[in-house]
Amino acid sequence: MTRLLHPITLAAAVVFAVALAGPTAKTAQAASIDLGVLDPGETIDFGSSIQNPGTFNDTFTFSLESSATLSIDASSLLFAPFGSPLIGIENLSLELFQVDPLPVSFIAGFTAGSPGSGGALVDLMLDAGTYFFHMSGEAIGAPGAVGPSFDVASGIYAGEIAVVPLPPAAMLFLSAIACVFGVSQLRRRWNPQSGAKAGS
After folding, report:
1. What's this model's pTM, rounded to 2 decimal places?
2. Rounded distance between C-alpha atoms, residue 66 and residue 77, angstroms
3. Residues 6+ apart with CB under 8 A from 133
């Protein structure tokens, strides 16, 4: 898992990069990352530096111990100071699945077509269970470019997951009853004909 640094740090890193290597064959790349159990109220970063030009398909797995509202956003970095990208990703795609309890089911996703763009899945209501999401696309940057962590990188993406706990069902039920009771009390106290209190 790679955390992105400030864009100025990235620019400085690229300036001090070694001479870029010549063209190489495009390769398929993949990584599997376990994010563990995500706690209510937690926000975590994720991302990756794609080393060589070509397609990639990274898998991030996580679990929720209770129902929660989840938001995920991700974007790719575009760095092309000389016209063609030193670092770039086309068609960055995120697809979220639930794997446990079975059967495996697709939940939501997005594709950000142009390099340097991104997308977000907002306020997904998820049950307790195990989930994974694929980050895929094509790294189009030059081989041998230096990324924010001084790793060799052709493409870089990063994102964030935010977990908001859902209120327990009992609390929702009690809140609804309190609202109904409050409205009925107001109706009894006020005379709808005159707007004055009944009995006055």
Report:
1. 0.68
2. 34
3. 59, 60, 72, 94, 95, 96, 97, 109
Residues 6+ apart with CB under 8 A from 156: 2, 4, 47, 48, 49, 50, 76, 77, 87, 89, 147, 148
Name the pairing type of β-strands 118-126 and 43-50.
unpaired
The predicted-structure confidence for 38-80, as pLDDT tens digits, reads as follows 998 889 999 999 989 999 999 999 999 999 999 999 999 999 9
Looking at the structure, give the CATH architecture of the domain made up of residues 7-166: Sandwich (2.60)
Q: What radius of gyration, in Å, describes the C-alpha atoms of the chain?
A: 25
The domain spans of the chain are 7-166, 167-200
Output the six-digit token pair for 22. 């010549």
Q: 12, 21 in Cβ contact below 8 A? A: no
